[in-house]
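Exercise 7. Given the encoded structure of a 279-residue chain, write a plausible sequence.
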């Protein structure tokens, strides 16, 4: 393992470090603002790489004119770890982070984001396909412009979303659902998360937390200030909401029949609601 020290300069220092890095290396980003993206479109990213804020310094990635701050669509980037970074997507065109699954060889798995802040994306804060991702102790806020844009939009499998604060996003705080016949969204766990004051767009029926797919779980979370606390989508199979607080959500003015606590849509099969306050 080699540690590469990176300083904020005008000549794409992160990309130059990525070109030198090898599997398992660490990129230590020194404090400052880096106006560039981390993207497999711009060159290779070796597997099992760590990119972190050096000594917990204030490190912001704030690219201008790119689609995203982080874009991974190649299996060589599997195992990437981002630690302690701030991702400013306010001058990007689409999302803050996209982990794509475009088929064999074009999917990064086992990606983790830890102790990061994400804000300002025009669409999704994190849009994640693939398997075995870990999102831990994140703050995701003010992402999206429509009710279809979310703090985290997870369509993969066997992922863990833990201790995430998702606040003031246009759509859901955290959405776990594929929405295609492939049914790739399965066995994900959302735990110890807080979805506060989401569903900022007045259209749609956005929930603080939304589950679809197969055997996905919400455990000991809080959802307040949305239209619906937790929404279990109509195609969900064997999903669970356990020990979750769903108080303080408001009726949607267009449909007063929809509950503000937990809404299990017709067609959902095998849903378990256990120990959920307000439901």
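Solution.
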């Amino acid at each position: 393992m080699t540690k590469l020290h990176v300083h904020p300069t005008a000549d794409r220092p992160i990309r130059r470090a990525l070109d030198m890095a090898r599997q398992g290396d660490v990129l230590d980003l020194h404090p400052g603002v880096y106006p560039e993206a981390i993207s497999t479109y711009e060159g290779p990213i070796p597997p099992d790489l760590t990119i972190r804020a050096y000594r917990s310094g204030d490190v912001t990635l704030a690219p201008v004119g790119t689609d995203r701050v982080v874009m991974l669509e190649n299996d060589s980037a599997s195992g990437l770890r981002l630690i302690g970074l701030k991702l400013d997507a306010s001058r990007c065109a689409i999302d803050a982070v996209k982990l794509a699954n475009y088929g064999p060889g074009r999917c990064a798995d086992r990606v983790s984001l830890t102790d990061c802040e994400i804000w300002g994306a025009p669409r999704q804060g994190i849009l994640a396909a693939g398997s075995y991702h870990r999102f831990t102790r994140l703050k995701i806020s003010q992402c999206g412009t429509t009710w279809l844009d979310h703090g985290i939009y997870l369509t993969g499998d066997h992922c863990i979303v833990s201790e995430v604060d998702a606040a003031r996003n246009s759509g859901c705080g955290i959405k776990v659902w594929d929405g295609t016949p492939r049914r790739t969204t399965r066995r994900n766990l959302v735990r110890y998360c807080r979805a506060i004051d989401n569903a900022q767009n007045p259209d749609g029926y956005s929930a603080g937390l939304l589950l679809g797919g197969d055997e996905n779980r919400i455990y000991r979370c809080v959802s307040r200030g949305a239209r619906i606390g937790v929404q279990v989508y109509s195609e969900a199979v064997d999903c669970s909401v356990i020990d979750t607080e769903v108080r303080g959500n408001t009726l949607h003015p267009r449909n007063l029949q929809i509950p503000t606590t937990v809404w299990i849509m017709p067609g959902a099969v095998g849903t378990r609601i256990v120990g959920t306050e307000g439901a």
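Remark. The mean pLDDT is 93. Students should compare their own answers with the one above.
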